[in-house]
Amino acid sequence: MNVLKTKIVATRKEHTCHGCLEKYPAKSKMRYVTSVDGGDISSVHYCETCEEVIDRTYSDDDLDLGIGEGEVKERDVDFWVEVNSKYVEKEVTE
Asked: Where are the domains of the chain?
């Protein structure tokens, strides 16, 4: 899989995170990734929690293989919940 484009966006509508399958409302900060795999182009969004979990636990080899739907959360639910709690607290204080 080759990443064509990646950027942080403030979403304009509700999106489901590819990494955890949680729904996030419009104006959420998410990573938008466009990639090509075997000639197929796809685009997905990742929440801040999944973004951090990927940065901290995935190797380059893992990323080259691609990330399946919901895989980031399923791979280590306890760690995902721990990281997510930081972002939930941040939303409450804003």
From this structure: 2-93
Nearest-CA neighbor of 9 among 40, 44, 58, 57?
44
91/94 Cα distance (integer angstroms): 5
pTM to 2 decimals? 0.89
Query: CA of 33: how far to CAs of 17, 50, 54, 85, 90, in Å?
Result: 11, 13, 13, 24, 24
Three-class SS state of 14? coil
Residue-wise pLDDT for 3-14, tens only, equals 899 999 999 999
Q: Which CATH class is domain 2-93?
A: alpha beta
